[in-house]
């Protein structure tokens, strides 16, 4: 909506409200603004909690017959800026942090819906804030209404989270080991009257990325992997027969088993995971998980029992689980090549001699874990560079000029190369696996001074430990006409890295998800 349109809309709203006030009415005169809406419904999803994420809001405007003209709405809250604020939806505009939103559609029908978001900023005082809603048709107000936006310290959405969870840490864990995880949870206050189920959620990172080097299982009938939001590798266990005992510390009757990958490197925090205990009402259970699928009389049900250790826990309900592996290195390798004095296509092999996997450790899904960087012999010119044979080794890519320039500072830090002529990145490489990068070079004007290639990880293990067991073979020469590489006096490369001991993909806890299908038939 343009500034002129906004001013016209505001002027029309002001004029309509003034006329209404002068007449002593609570709604605009119907005779002057036909057709009036048959139904107007504003849903602000009250109440709002300061600092919570924005909540979806809607305005439905229905007519008995198709209206003619531009249908618009104006919603303004009587409060200070930077308290109640809106997020613009389709056809809507709102100034930053101003408690005002205006929306319009040029082609209204009998049923119309405006969608947007509403939130209370952190620090907004608790209380009720009056709003005024005006619906306009071709700048004429056809409906006005008032109400309140309620701001509260907390809201109950059918999910009760007033538990304190125990943090657990396991260190020096050999690869392939099963770790029994059986944390305690203290119930702080009474469950809501409409509680239907208590739920334990155990996370293990993001699914299908190989990013954590650990898997977990809950093989009981009342437990299920997360088929509702499968990107999160979560195990849910549901307890319909539960105690309501404020002050009691609970524990699963049996542990959830986390299995460390048999080829996981170390020392590495392969599980920056988490768990949570919460309670939900029947509406939330039906919405997010569907109907109970297990037999309540089954002998294979996990139970939630009072813990042998009743010492109360403090803190929030998000329990942290850290599993750190024992030392188990991988061995990245790279081989050099010799260039002829013409256009040459080089196949630069990169491998992993093990015994561990160069495990995927991206900071985010789009970021690689490992990289190859190279400097051509003096006078040689790079024509192209690409990774080949990438099947089974996802995440391989070679940087174009723009990305190389954008990452140059990070790539050049700690290198033995005088410059970076090309660079590629990849997510991981299993023991015994290899791949090659094809570099096409014009060496016609090469002077013979050698170049070099280097391979290493962006990330390190616990306390910055280099997980590569033999850094000496992480560098190799690029020569011309067989000329040898001068002795640099150092058999290894000092690489820049990010300590990955604390690097995690985030604690995976309960996330409300629309039900997809029942767990007994995941293919349905």
Automatic annotation (TrEMBL):
Gram-positive cocci surface proteins LPxTG domain boundaries: 485-516
Keyword rRNA-binding in annotation: no
PROSITE patterns on file: TAT
Keyword Repeat among record annotations: no
Coiled coil: none
Extent of the signal sequence: 1-32
InterPro entries in UniProt: LPXTG_anchor, TAT_signal
Pfam families in UniProt: Gram_pos_anchor (PF00746)
The entry's keywords: Cell wall, Membrane, Peptidoglycan-anchor, Secreted, Signal, Transmembrane, Transmembrane helix
Transmembrane segments: 493-513
Record's protein name: LPXTG cell wall anchor domain-containing protein
UniProt source species: Glycomyces mayteni
Source lineage: Bacteria, Bacillati, Actinomycetota, Actinomycetes, Glycomycetales
């Amino acid at each position: 909506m343009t500034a002129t349109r906004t001013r016209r809309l505001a002027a029309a709203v002001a004029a309509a409200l003034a006329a209404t006030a002068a007449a002593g009415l609570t709604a605009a005169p119907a005779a002057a603004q036909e057709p009036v809406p048959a139904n107007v419904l504003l849903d602000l999803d009250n109440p709002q909690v300061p600092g919570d994420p924005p909540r979806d809001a809607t305005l439905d405007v229905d007519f008995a017959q198709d209206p003619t003209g531009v249908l618009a709405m104006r919603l303004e809250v009587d409060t200070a800026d930077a308290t109640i604020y809106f997020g613009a939806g389709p056809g809507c505009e709102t100034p930053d942090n101003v408690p005002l939103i205006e929306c319009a559609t040029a082609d209204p029908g009998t049923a119309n819906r405006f969608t947007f978001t509403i939130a209370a900023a952190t620090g907004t005082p608790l209380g009720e804030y009056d709003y005024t809603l005006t619906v306009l048709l071709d700048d004429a107000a056809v409906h006005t209404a008032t109400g309140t936006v309620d701001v509260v310290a907390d809201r109950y959405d059918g999910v009760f989270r007033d538990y304190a969870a125990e943090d657990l840490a396991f260190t020096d864990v050999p690869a392939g080991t099963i770790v029994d995880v059986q944390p305690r949870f203290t119930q702080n206050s009474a469950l809501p009257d409409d509680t239907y189920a208590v739920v334990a959620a155990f996370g293990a990172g993001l699914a299908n990325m190989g990013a954590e080097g650990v898997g977990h299982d809950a093989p009981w009938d009342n437990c299920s992997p997360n088929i509702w939001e499968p990107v999160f590798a979560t195990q849910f266990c549901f307890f319909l027969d539960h105690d309501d005992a404020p002050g009691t510390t609970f524990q699963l009757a049996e542990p959830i088993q986390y299995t460390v990958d048999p080829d996981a490197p170390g020392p590495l925090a392969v599980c920056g995971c988490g768990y949570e205990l919460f309670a939900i009402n029947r509406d939330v259970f039906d919405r997010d998980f569907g109907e109970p699928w297990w037999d309540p009389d089954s002998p294979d049900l996990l139970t939630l029992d009072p813990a042998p250790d009743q010492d109360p826990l403090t803190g929030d309900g998000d329990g942290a689980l850290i599993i750190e592996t024992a030392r188990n290195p991988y061995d990245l390798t790279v081989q050099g090549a010799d260039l002829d004095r013409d256009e040459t296509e080089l196949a630069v092999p990169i491998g992993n001699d093990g015994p561990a996997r160069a495990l995927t450790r991206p900071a985010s899904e789009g970021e690689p874990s490992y990289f190859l960087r190279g400097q051509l012999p003096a006078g040689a010119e790079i024509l192209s560079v690409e990774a080949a044979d990438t099947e089974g080794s996802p995440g391989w890519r070679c940087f174009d000029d723009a990305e190389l320039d954008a990452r140059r500072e990070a790539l050049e830090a700690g290198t033995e190369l005088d410059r970076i002529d090309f660079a590629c990145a990849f997510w991981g490489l299993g023991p015994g696996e290899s791949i090659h990068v094809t570099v096409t070079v014009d060496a016609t004007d090469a002077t013979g001074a050698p170049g070099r290639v280097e391979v290493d990880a962006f990330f390190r293990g616990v306390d910055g430990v280099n997980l590569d067991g033999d850094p000496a073979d992480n560098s190799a020469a690029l020569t011309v006409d067989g000329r040898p590489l001068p002795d640099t006096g150092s058999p290894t490369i000092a690489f820049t890295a990010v300590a990955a001991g604390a690097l995690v993909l985030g604690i995976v806890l309960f996330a409300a998800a629309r039900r997809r299908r029942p767990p007994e038939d995941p293919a349905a």
